[in-house]
Amino acid sequence: MAGTSKSEGRTGLLNGLAAYGMWGLVPLFWPLLKPAGATEILAHRMVWSLAFVAVALLVVRRWAWAGELLRQPRRLGLVVIAAAVITVNWGVYIWAVNSGHVVEASLGYFINPLVTIAMGVLILKERLRPVQWAAVGVGFSAVLVLTIGYGRPPWISLTLAFSFATYGLVKKKVNLGGVESLAAETAVQFLPALGYLLWLSAHGGLTFATEGIGHASLLASTGLVTALPLVCFGAAAIRVPLSTLGLLQYLAPVFQFLLGVLYFGEAMPPERWAEFALVWLALVLLTGDALRTSRRTARALGLAVTESRAEAPAANDTAGVTGMTGATGETGATGETGATGAVREAESVASGVSAGAAAAGVTTASGVPGAPAPEAGVSPLTKQ
User: Fold this and answer.
1) Rounded to whole angstroms, how far apart are CA atoms 277 and 315?
2) pTM of the full predicted structure?
């Protein structure tokens, strides 16, 4: 059993590394699709992603969710909102990479955990711990530094961060699995995307059929590039703790940042280094606070479970004696309730930590700023 558990853990870790590695290296892919413009690439991504996940769902025969979703207008409306928001996220990201703004795009995913927490406060009226307030304040200062240095706000970073944070917030309410969610959202995107491609073809602007079989194949592979990391993410999510995923999630923007600086040769003036330093400081504060909270919660839960096990035999003995004397068993029931109450109280602490972050669009279980899946089309809150 221990060997199996270790093997599962290794498999999960490798899948997690593969998922975030692919999301981190995806800036290398989008330039290969030129001379197609960002909008054409986006439309192809929507069309081919639906084709890919539809085939996957046919293979595994998972269609029951679709009928349930169609019978729930509110959830269906939320899927439409999620599809619209992720369209903005995808489109801005593709344009940013192909326009030489890879570093600024990576910043968007670095500040995403800070934005999701801020949205939790502003929209869901959540209360933050002092260190969380400090992290959000440092992140806000970083944006101010770059705004002053550039003479304009870092709108690419902010658009990516806020669109993905909003996406996570909406996806929490929809509560669909990763592949199912991508299928539902791309189904919403499909007709507008296909209509745009047909319009582009009628006006002679479609590159799919004019740049050779290699170019057409690359455009078609956008569906695979979207869905394959998602499959690996799902395999990792069921095998490793979410705290591990919460730490792995930083691989994607780190890879993107390194690609922008070392491969694409983007400039890093002092104000940009200062902003990244502040953002990384904020993430260190946030992650450290989350890990400390996680350990305290685990200790509280472990203590409650230990106490409940110690109390349970005494409660059973009391119930047995009372039963022999013709009592109703209320003493035994009360003993069980006391033990159960201790467990529930500790579990309440744990769920409070995770739900507080989750409501803001942050993956927890450990309270670690969650595992947003950049460019995945999947919320960090999605259950795999």
Assistant:
1) 56
2) 0.76
